From TrEMBL:
The keyword Transferase applies. It is an enzyme of class 2 (transferase). Residues 95-249 form the Glycosyl transferase family domain. This is peptidoglycan glycosyltransferase. It comes from Candidatus Giovannonibacteria bacterium RIFCSPHIGHO2_01_FULL_45_23.
Length: 716
C-alpha cells in the first residue's frame, strides 16, 4: 500500500510540473493560437491594467526640520514604505544581493518568467523526500502571487499555478527587470504588518533598506517564506538560523565573499525599537499640523482608510527635535514638582509650552499637554485662558506707541512716573459671570508696593497691578480702546473685552496667540505669522514649500467704542488694523522685560547663559500660571492650569514665577548649554535715550534687596 501511495504522489508531482511547462510552452510558442485575451478568458485572469496601474498604499510621515521622524500614519495591517529606483542599488546593495541569492539567483540572467533548472531541482527533491521541501518559484511568480487576491493566494490548485505562470510571463514582457525587482522588494511581507523591505528595515533595525549590513539583510531574506516563525523580535533563535542559512546560500551562489560571510555569521542580531518610538513624538503638534493640512491643503488624515493618509505624504514640520524634547521634559517635570509640592490638594493640572523662531515665525516646539493618550486636547492652541499680568506688556506698549505718535519726547519712556493710587470702579462687567459689579484692583503685596508712584520700568519688573490699570484706563473705569487695537496689532485674534479688568489679563487668550504677540517685541516690531509646516510632498513630487518669511501687514478689522460730541455718547466704529509696532517701542519693551529677569519676578532666569526677557502672569485665585519670554533667537511661552475649561485653583501662591517659569528655565538651560551668549540687538542713539535710568529707579531697586524673586502680582 505504501508503495502505491508513493507512486501516486510521484505521478501527481510529475503531472503538475508537466502541466506547468506545457502551459508556458503554449503561451510562448503558440501565440497565434492562444492569445493573451484567450488566456484571460480561459483562466479568468484579472485585467493586466491592475498591474500596470498598481499603486500600493504607502505610509505617510511627519519629520522635524532636521529630517528626524516624528510620526507615521500607516494603513491598518499594511505598513508600507515604497522604495524608488534612486533609494537603493538593485545590483550591489546587501539586501538586494542576499534576496536574489536566496530567492532567484538567475533573475537578471534569465529571459523566461520561470526557472526550469529550479523547477527540475525542486521536483527531484520533493519526489525524493515524498513531500514538498523546496520551491521553484521565481521573483516574477512570487510577485504575481502577492498581487493576486487573498482568495487566489490561498489556493494550491493547478489553475492558480497556471495563472501565476501566465501573469509572470506577461510581467517579463511589459516591465524591465529592475522594475520587477523593485516592485517585488516593495511587496514582500515581513510580519508585524510590514510590507516591503524598507518598512521591515525601519521596524527591525531603524535603518533604510539600502543601509543594511549583510547580516541584517540576511535576517530579512530568511523571513520571506515564514515571517512570523523567523521574526527577530519574537523568535530570535529561529531568526538567527534563518539568517545563517541565507548567508550560506548567498556565499554558495557567489553573491558574497568568504570574509563577508564570516563577519556576518559572527555578528549578533540586534533589533531596535527606536523607530517605533519615533513614530509617536510630538502628538499635539502633529494633531495641529493635520488640521492645517486638512483646512489649507485639502489633505485628509482622518480615521477612514479611504483618504490621503496612506498615499505616502511626506510632511516636514518646523519643529526642532532637541527643543521639542526639552519642552516635553519641562512640562513633565513641572507637573511632577507641582504635585509633589501640593500633595493631595493638587488639582489634575495640565501644562503647555510653545516656542517660535525669531525672524521667521517657525514654530520650533509645541507641547500641548503632558499625555496626549490620556487627554487629546492641545492646550497650546485651543485653550483660551485668562493671562493675568502676562498681558501687561500689551497695555504698556500701547501707551508707548501713543506717546511716540503724539510727538511726546521719547527720552526716558520707561522711567516716567506712574501713579499707584487706589482705584475703585463701579459698573464693571465681571468677565466670568457677565454681571456688573464693583471692582477694586489690588497689588499682590500692598505692604511692599505702597508708594504713591513708580517708574514704568519698575512697575513692569515687579508686576505691580494698579499702575497698569491706570495706564489702560480711559474715562471713568473704561478700557482705552487703543489697548484692544494694540492686541490686534500684535496678532492676538481672540476678542479682548472692553472693560478695565482686561488690563490685568481678564480676557481669554491662547498660548499660541500670546507667544506670537511677544515675538513682535523680539522682532523689532515686526509681526510674522507663526507656521508649523515647511514642506509637503507626495509620491508624485512636491506639493508645497515655505520659501519666504514676509511680515504680516493686515491684521483685520476691529470694532471699538469712541466718544461722540461733548463726550456724552459713545458710538461703534470699525477700523482696519495694521500689524506690528515701531522699532523704538519694541526695543523699549525688550528692555522693560529684561528688567523682569534682572531684578523682577523672573530673577531665577538671570543666571542663564543667554540674555532673556519675559513676564510672569498669575490669574485671580491662582487658577492659571504663565511665563512668557524671549531670547535673541526664540520667543516662548509656558502655561500651567486646569485642563480645558477647568477653573479650580492650583493652590496657594502657585504663581507664574513658581509653577510655569520652571518649564522655560529647563528648556533654556538645556538648549543653550553649549552656546555662546548673544546680545539682543544693536541700539540706536534714540533708542538708548528712551531707556535712560534715573536715580529714582535705582532707589526703587535698592529697596527690594532680599525680597522673594518668585513673588508675582496676580489679578485680584
Amino acid at each position: 500500500m505504501k508503495r502505491i501511495l508513493r507512486w501516486i504522489w510521484r505521478l501527481f508531482l510529475i503531472s503538475t510540473v508537466l502541466s506547468a511547462l506545457g502551459g508556458v510552452f503554449l503561451y510562448f510558442f503558440w501565440p497565434w493560437v492562444f492569445s493573451w485575451q484567450i488566456w484571460t478568458h480561459v483562466l479568468g485572469l484579472p485585467s493586466f491594467s491592475k498591474f500596470e496601474e498598481y499603486k500600493p498604499y504607502q505610509t505617510s510621515y511627519f519629520f522635524t526640520r532636521g529630517g528626524e521622524i516624528l510620526s507615521c500614519v500607516a494603513k491598518p495591517e499594511e505598513w508600507r514604505d515604497a522604495l524608488s529606483g534612486g533609494d537603493i542599488d538593485l545590483k550591489n546593495a546587501p539586501i538586494a544581493r542576499t534576496i536574489l541569492a536566496v530567492e532567484d539567483r538567475r533573475f537578471y540572467e534569465r529571459d523566461l518568467a520561470i526557472d526550469l533548472r529550479a523547477i527540475a531541482r525542486a521536483a527531484y527533491e520533493d519526489v525524493k523526500e515524498l513531500k514538498i521541501v523546496e520551491g521553484g518559484s521565481t521573483i516574477p511568480q512570487q510577485l504575481v502571487k502577492q498581487l493576486l487576491s487573498s482568495e487566489e493566494r490561498g489556493s494550491r490548485s493547478v489553475r492558480r499555478k497556471l495563472k501565476e505562470l501566465v501573469l509572470a510571463s506577461r510581467l517579463i514582457q511589459k516591465f524591465s527587470k529592475d522594475e520587477i525587482f523593485l516592485l517585488y522588494l516593495n511587496e514582500v511581507p515581513f510580519g508585524h504588518q510590514r510590507i516591503g523591505v524598507e518598512a521591515a528595515s525601519r521596524l527591525y533595525f531603524n535603518k533604510r533598506a539600502g543601509e543594511l549590513s549583510y547580516a541584517e539583510a540576511a535576517v530579512l531574506a530568511g523571513m520571506i517564506h515564514a515571517p512570523a516563525r523567523f521574526s527577530p523580535i519574537k523568535h530570535p533563535d529561529m531568526a538567527k538560523a534563518g539568517r545563517d542559512s541565507a548567508l550560506k546560500k548567498a556565499f554558495t551562489e557567489g553573491m558574497i565573499s568568504e570574509s563577508d560571510l564570516n563577519s556576518a555569521l559572527a555578528e549578533e542580531i540586534v533589533t531596535s525599537n527606536e523607530f517605533s518610538k519615533s513614530c509617536s513624538r510630538a502628538p499635539h503638534a502633529i494633531d495641529y499640523a493635520r488640521e492645517i493640512l486638512k483646512n489649507e491643503f485639502g489633505i485628509y488624515f482622518d480615521d477612514e482608510w479611504q483618504n490621503d493618509a496612506w498615499r505616502g505624504i511626506k510632511v516636514r514640520l518646523t519643529l526642532d527635535s532637541e527643543l521639542q524634547t526639552f519642552g516635553e521634559e519641562g512640562v513633565r517635570l513641572a507637573l511632577e514638582a507641582y504635585r509633589a509640592k501640593y500633595g493631595e490638594s493638587a488639582i489634575d493640572a495640565e501644562a503647555a509650552f510653545l516656542a517660535i523662531e525669531n525672524g521667521t515665525g517657525a514654530i520650533l516646539a509645541m507641547v500641548g499637554g503632558n499625555d496626549f493618550s490620556r487627554r487629546k486636547f492641545n492646550s497650546a492652541v485651543r485653550a483660551k485662558r485668562q493671562t493675568g499680568s502676562a498681558f501687561k506688556p500689551v497695555v504698556y506698549v500701547s501707551k508707548f506707541e501713543q506717546e511716540l505718535a503724539e510727538g511726546k519726547p521719547y527720552d526716558n519712556l520707561l522711567d516716567q512716573q506712574i501713579t499707584n493710587a487706589y482705584i475703585s470702579c463701579k459698573n464693571v462687567k465681571d468677565p466670568k459671570t457677565g454681571q456688573w459689579t464693583y471692582w477694586t484692583p489690588r497689588n499682590f503685596d500692598e505692604r511692599k508696593f505702597n508708594a504713591g508712584s513708580y517708574t514704568r520700568r519698575f512697575a513692569i519688573a515687579q508686576s505691580i497691578n494698579r499702575p497698569a490699570v491706570w495706564t489702560a484706563q480711559v474715562g471713568k473705569c473704561g478700557l482705552d480702546p487703543r489697548v484692544r487695537i494694540m492686541a490686534k496689532k500684535l496678532g492676538i485674534e481672540s476678542d479682548i473685552d472692553d472693560h478695565l479688568p482686561s488690563a490685568l489679563g481678564a480676557s481669554g487668550i491662547s498660548l499660541l496667540e500670546l507667544t506670537r504677540a511677544y515675538s513682535v517685541f523680539s522682532n523689532k516690531g515686526i509681526l510674522r505669522p507663526a507656521y508649523i509646516i515647511s514642506e509637503v510632498s507626495g509620491p508624485d513630487g512636491k506639493i508645497y514649500e515655505k520659501s519666504s518669511w514676509e511680515a504680516k501687514r493686515d491684521c483685520g478689522l476691529i470694532t471699538i467704542k469712541v466718544r461722540g460730541a461733548q463726550n456724552k455718547q459713545t458710538k461703534a466704529v470699525t477700523i482696519a488694523v495694521e500689524c506690528g509696532i515701531s522699532e523704538i517701542a519694541a526695543g523699549v519693551m525688550v528692555e522693560a522685560l529684561r528688567g523682569v529677569v534682572k531684578f523682577g519676578t523672573a530673577r531665577s532666569l538671570d543666571s542663564l547663559k543667554q540674555p532673556t526677557a519675559g513676564k510672569t502672569g498669575t490669574t485671580e485665585n491662582y487658577i492659571d500660571a504663565w511665563f512668557m519670554g524671549f531670547t535673541p533667537h526664540i520667543t516662548f511661552g509656558a502655561w500651567v492650569g486646569g485642563p480645558e475649561s477647568y477653573e479650580k485653583p492650583l493652590g496657594d501662591r502657585a504663581t507664574g514665577g513658581s509653577v510655569a517659569l520652571p518649564i522655560a528655565k529647563h528648556v533654556l538651560a538645556n538648549w543653550y548649554k553649549d552656546s555662546e551668549s548673544t546680545p539682543f540687538q544693536e541700539e540706536s542713539e534714540e533708542y538708548m535715550k528712551s531707556l535712560v535710568s534715573p536715580k529714582s529707579f535705582e532707589k526703587e531697586v535698592e529697596s527690594l534687596k532680599g525680597s522673594d524673586p518668585d513673588v508675582e502680582a496676580p489679578q485680584e
